[in-house]
Specification:
This protein is an alpha/beta fold. The chain has 17 helices and 10 strands. The two termini are about 25 Å apart.
Length: about 375
């Protein structure tokens, strides 16, 4: 297993540097689909760590992978619930509660820019979490300690899962840390969609200032979780806002601080996997200026053949296998699609085979189709 682990890790590392490995790596970006596939509900896995572990064990055992994107669910719901709030609730799937994100007024950008840590802790946390609204007492202190225990229990599940998959199946977990651009954090946690879109038009200068002020916090969060670059690992960067704004607005409010983050991390030797949700064709000109051969672009809706033409000389790219077809089309249609992806995209390296979207729900993949395409790519995607 250790030999397989090293081989798979090396395969991913070469591809991420836009090189040519021995064959096309196959990356799992499966998330909550693991639970429905294993017959568990979201509520069950938050109540039973062993079921949480068993679900990803089954995914690693039943399908071929060169790397896992994650080996736990997305959010530590027990921790958030213990704090008495948060946007995420279980209820059969991890959904955002209506109205739970808007927690900052548009006039508070200067306060956020002045001291992001202080503002988030002293102003936002009490608005979001009941526990932070209580006056100090020994009882409150103990409740907070209990909440932190839930958080570290969640982290422990991830560590145990990664170790088990390494020992039993020789499969590495390639994600070393996660970072969100400051404006994505504002969208996801502070101003909601409508507020953020209004702010981009009305307060672009304040948004730029806030994004720059929050950069040290983003860097500290990454380096605290993933202090030094490791071969075969990447920083995961989900991007939630750019697909909804014009190239002009992107250049004003998002790109300056985003470029600083990308330069900082790649200068230190990190690889970054950017999840370009929906279409990014209107932003290809900017992506061409990212650090060369240190970025992996996971594209949802963009035609990867065009991506290869526009960006193939400067980044590795991933995706292509449509989750819609994996669930609703025949096995042969899926195999034909996988063959076309390898034939058209993998010739000169820098390609990682995976789905075009993160599989969350039971309807995101038919297991038989997923197993068939992974085994096909494993055998067919060999560099001669």
């Amino acid at each position: 297993m250790e030999k397989q682990y090293a081989e798979k890790n090396k395969r991913m590392a070469i591809a991420m540097d836009n090189g040519i490995p021995d064959r096309v790596p196959i990356l799992s970006i499966i998330d909550n689909w693991a639970f429905s596939y294993s017959g568990y509900s979201i509520d069950e896995i938050f109540e039973d760590d062993e079921k949480h572990l068993a679900a990803f064990d089954k995914v690693a055992r039943d399908f071929y992978w060169d790397s896992m994107f994650t080996v736990t669910t997305t959010r530590p719901i027990n921790y958030i619930s213990a704090l008495g709030g948060g946007a995420y609730k279980a209820k059969g799937t991890l959904q955002i509660e209506s109205g739970s994100i808007l927690s900052m007024d548009a006039e508070e950008y200067p306060d956020l820019a002045e001291d992001p840590y202080k503002f988030l802790l002293e102003v936002i946390a009490p608005r979001k979490y009941e526990l932070f609204r209580k006056p100090y007492s020994e009882e409150k202190y103990q409740e907070y300690c209990d909440a932190v225990d839930h958080y570290f229990a969640f982290r422990n599940v991830g560590a145990r899962s990664a170790q088990a998959l390494r020992e039993k199946y020789g499969v590495p977990v390639s994600r070393g840390a996660v970072f969100f651009h400051p404006l994505d954090m504002i969208l996801d946690y502070l101003r909601d969609f409508q507020g953020t879109m209004f702010d981009i038009k009305r307060k672009p200068k304040q948004i730029r200032e806030v994004c720059d002020a929050m950069l040290p916090m983003v860097i500290e969060m990454v380096e605290g979780a993933y202090p030094e670059p490791v071969e075969g690992k990447y920083i995961f960067n989900p991007m939630h806002l750019p697909e909804f704004i014009s190239a002009r607005d992107f250049e004003k409010v998002y790109w300056p601080s985003y470029k600083k983050l990308m330069d900082y991390f790649t200068d230190k030797g990190y690889n970054i996997l950017c999840y370009y949700e929906r279409s990014y064709a209107h932003l290809f000109e900017f992506l061409q200026d990212l650090p060369k051969n240190k970025i992996v672009g996971l594209f949802e809706d963009d035609d990867l053949r065009i991506v290869k033409e526009k960006l193939g000389d400067m980044m590795c790219f991933a995706g292509g296998m449509k989750t819609f077809d994996l669930n609703y089309s025949s096995k042969q249609v899926c195999l034909d699609q996988a063959k076309s992806l390898i034939d058209d995209l993998a010739g000169d390296g820098g390609y990682i085979f995976t789905t075009d979207r993160i599989p969350h729900s039971a309807n995101d993949a038919n297991p038989e189709n997923l197993r068939a395409v992974n085994e096909f790519v494993r055998d067919y995607g060999v560099y001669k």
